[in-house]
Amino acid sequence: MPTVLVVDDDRSMCTLMISSLKRRGYDARACHSGDEAVNAIEHDAVDAVVTDLNMRGMSGIALCERILARRPEVPVIVITAFGSLDTAVSAIRAGAYDFLTKPFEMEALHLALDRALAHRALQVEVRRLREQVRREPSFDEIIGQSPKMRALFEWIERTAPTDASTLITGESGTGKELVAKALHRKSARSKGPFVAINCAALPEALLESELFGHRRGAFTDAHSERTGLFAQAHGGTLFLDEIGDLPVGLQPKLLRALQERRIRPVGSDTEVEIDIRLISATHRDLPKMVEKGTYRDDLYWRIDVVRLELPPLRERGGDILLLAQHFLDEYAARSSKGVHGLSEAAARRFLDYPWPGNVRELQNAIERAVAICQYDTIGLDDLPQRVQSVTASTVPDIGSFRPMDEVERLYVQKVLDSVQGNKREAAKILGFDRKTLYRKLQKWGLDVSDD
Ligand SMILES: Nc1ncnc2c1ncn2[C@@H]1O[C@H](COP(=O)(O)OP(=O)(O)OP(=O)(O)O)[C@@H](O)[C@H]1O
Ligand SMILES: [Mg+2]
To answer: Which ligand gives the minimal distance to the CA of 362?
Structure first.
């Protein structure tokens, strides 16, 4: 239950607001002067303040300034008399989060408070992440704290020391190459070489001689002997990126090399022994390709002994902000710009955007944002158009992760608001029977009076 301080020297107004807020599930407390409020702010847990602007003694503006100085994370909503827009503007300048003009509906106050608290929750979350990035950045350079990434780290830890062929799958830009390097560094072969090649980047003949090497004169352009990547990776790890794009003609040759642990350079009649651990990666669906006959199943079984699956970024929750903060620190330092963090609005969009290009897309978005940012936080204007214009989900704006029960309460409240408190109507929308709705309202201490 968030605690809200209501500050007004008009006692009847104060009482009115307090009882309405209590009905709405807030723990609301009254203060009848600015001094009293400053004292409460300093000594008690307060989540938000609602204050009248014109009070005897300390004015609402002076109170805003004091709260900003002492507890900047506490949002303040000021209530101004009708027609005093100038004072409202100076209140915002003094650090108020929002203002309401008298007379106002209680509903408007509730909405402003919900918004202010969601804003604060996200702000606290962004600050926490910033600390976290600085404290315990990563698992071997791979940033992530989400359950899916933690499970992956454990799996890397467990499988790195083996020599088993490992296939890393995941959408483009999810960090497959990063994981391949981490596997190598954590293996017994870490002192040996890590040799990487992208199988999609070369035509078949060139790729073959890259992989297996060739003798001098093996083909027209072979002016000298060349050691292949298999031989270069001897004692270490060979990373075949985009293995799903390996030309069909090379598939049996690779299979043979892996089975026999020997290779024959192009144009040579002697075989050489190889000692490598194979890590491959693909964004393709290899089992499906096997099924359709476009990929050899015997090769597939050889390379997919251990499987590591990288989740898409949109399934990593708060990691999105963690990574954003990490890249932000990096690019800000590199360009020596004083950009510290994301604004709440930008963070919100980052969480709503589906990131089809995953971490690489996020990295690019941050690089661009840091380059064009004119202030010390990245705002909506600094984001790529597609991120800016993402339509938020239909889930109510509740800041970052909250317990399910709280999410449910906020959602039910939202639905109730949209039907002017008509419980019969709300129950219909929510798919509850009326009894269930009343039981829930009662549990949350909300208004259970009949329609
Ligand atoms: N968890 C992470 N923490 C920090 N940086 C990351 C993370 N994941 C990816 N990156 C960075 O994002 C970029 C893309 O990662 P990477 O090249 O490993 O992706 P990929 O899955 O191999 O993509 P593709 O399929 O397009 O080759 C790199 O700059 C990488 O350093
Ligand atoms: Mg890659």
So the answer is: 1
Q: What value does the mean pLDDT take over residues 163-169?
A: 96
Partner residues linked to 332 by β-bridges: none
Pocket test for ligand 1, best of 146, 174, 282 (most atoms within 8 A of CB): 174
With a 6 Å cutoff on the Cβ, whether 178 touches ligand 1 is: yes
Q: Which of 152, 178, 239, 320 to mutate to test the pocket of ligand 1 (most atoms within 8 A of CB)?
A: 178
387 burial level (CB within 10 Å; 0-12, 13-18, 19+)? buried
> For residue 395, what pLDDT is reported?
46
**Residue 264 token pair:** 């024959």
User: Domain spanning 3-132: which CATH class is it, in words?
Assistant: alpha beta
How many other C-beta atoms are found inside a 10 Å radius of the C-beta of residue 362?
23
The per-residue pLDDT for range 207-254, each reduced to its tens digit, is 999 999 988 877 777 777 888 999 999 999 999 999 999 999 999 999
Give the CATH number of domain 314-388.
1.10.8.60
Task: Decide whether 3-132 matches 147-309 in CATH topology.
Answer: yes
CB atoms within 10 A of CB 408: 14
Check pocket membership of 413 for ligand 1, CB cut-off 6 A. Answer: no
The model's pLDDT over 96-148, given as tens digits with 9 standing for 90+, comes to 999 898 888 999 999 999 989 988 888 777 777 777 766 655 677 899 988 89
Distance 177 CA to ligand 1 centre (A): 6
CATH for 147-309 is 3.40.50.300
